[in-house]
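Weekly modeling sync, notes
Attendees: S.R. (lead), two postdocs, one rotation student

Agenda item 3: backlog of single-chain predictions. S.R. asked that every request posted to the team notebook include the full sequence so nobody has to chase files. The rotation student volunteered to paste the first one in as an example of the format we agreed on. Action items at the bottom.

Example entry:
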Amino acid sequence: MRRLVFPAAVLLLAACGQKTDLEPLAGHSLPPAPLGAKAQPDSEKLLELDPLAAPPRSVELRKRSEERQDDPFDLPPE
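Predicted structure, as returned to the notebook:
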């Protein structure tokens, strides 16, 4: 039984990684164009995150150790 369950689980997990172009469901359409937009955005454009939703990461490394500033919310346990 275990010999059948493991390959089936692997196949199900492999199917999760399939990527295809997104299409609206049959009988449905994309949301209306935003106010003032000249063209209807496609699915790829609608899925893009704006910079405020996903800000760039800062990977600034410390050059030397620094004292931490006092944190008023770092309270000892009662």
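Discussion: group reviewed the output briefly. The mean pLDDT is 78.
Action items: rotation student to repeat for the remaining queue; S.R. to check formatting next week.
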